[in-house]
Design goal:
The structure is a homodimer. Chain A contains 9 helices and 6 strands; from the N terminus they run H-H-H-E-E-H-E-H-E-H-E-H-E-H-H. Chain A is α/β, with parallel strands linked by helices. The radius of gyration of chain A is 22 Å and the shape is globular.
Chain lengths: 209, 209
């Protein structure tokens, strides 16, 4: 597009580098900021810089944290022998919201993805293995997305974990039909998995309570 | 949502103030920036500030411009007696893209919207009236969106323009079915307007060439 101003052109370019934001949306956002008080842009820019420069990661689980060790890892009422491996902070938040999980986490910072150029060394896999070697970890739950990249990462981690001296139990979150989901509209692979991994009815009744 | 970090909370709040961006998207954008080189955030923040603080408006037409008078207003090959009144720079860009318009513009900076608290004094209506009083303007084209707010603004401008000493011709852009549009799917009001404002067939043939 032909912008009548270089500055406008530059800001549209910068904003549209963000994922899911095209030139049109970028222009809309830039024009919106022009109509707002200058302080809003000031505050946005300053917070962006502070966030990018000062953000810290928990030295135990690698989750984003304001303290050296995050609140979850500091919580003594949680089971520190149970580690749930997730991709990023959003997954931690999603699992915490269920209120059902009492173990701790390990945040990988991504999943292995050859297409996007993310290799195992870009993730905190080394830190995970060291953590399991050095602390008494009873079980590791692999809780990655049920995508090709997620499965690849699961297999990679499974092999790595099995090469350790003290091999923990290794589990993965259940795949099956969603609660409230209709059989008819569930894809075949998911349906097959939900039959293979069926659970005793007694147990299912208890969970529904 | 419960974020494990104040800084993360702050940046999500700041980003989600932008229109059309919710907390979820804001979190996604913030995490994206963390994975990119620090320079990207630096450059984004600096460009935001520079854009907001240094942007200039053409002193003739109020369009965004890097110079005191914008390129369009400086162009002597254009008809400066024909002024097209638009809401913002996006409309100027849209009309310029057609390559059909040879007059100049007047950018209102918005439209009158009681719901959003935008009154006539927030717009450059006074500047428009002064411009018409002081320069020889032959015709004013009102090219605002065909919405309730757009129509309100059109009527307001029409009355103001008619109270001037030298009343220019006042026209508005045609409303009718889109080129390529099917009659069957056109709403009744638009269809009625397209019949009321029918044009001689000869003229229409010439335009299709």
């Amino acid at each position: 597009m032909n912008y009548p101003s270089k500055l406008l052109n530059e800001i549209v370019d910068e904003i549209s580098k963000l994922p899911g934001i095209g030139k049109r949306t970028a222009l809309r956002l830039a024009l919106y900021l022009l109509k707002q008080p200058q302080e809003q842009t000031q505050s946005l820019a300053e917070t962006l810089l502070r966030f990018r420069n000062e953000i810290k990661y928990c030295k135990v689980c690698n989750n984003i944290s304001d303290t050296e060790v995050c609140e979850i890892c500091q919580d003594n009422s949680r089971d520190h022998t149970l580690v749930c491996v997730v991709e990023d902070i959003r997954d931690v938040m999603a699992i915490e919201k269920t209120g059902e999980y009492k173990g701790v986490y390990h945040v990988l910072g991504g999943i292995i993805s050859p297409l996007e150029g993310i290799s195992p060394t870009d993730l905190t896999i080394k830190e995970l293995l060291e953590r399991i070697e050095n602390y008494q970890i009873r079980e590791v739950i692999l809780a990655l997305s049920a995508t090709v990249d997620g499965d690849t990462t699961n297999f990679y981690l499974y092999r790595k974990l099995n090469s350790l001296k003290n091999i923990p139990d290794i589990s993965t979150i259940a795949r099956g039909i969603s609660v409230g989901g209709e059989l008819e509209y569930t894809d075949e692979i998911t349906l097959a998995r939900s039959i293979q991994n069926r659970v005793p009815f007694d147990q299912s009744i208890k969970q529904n309570k």
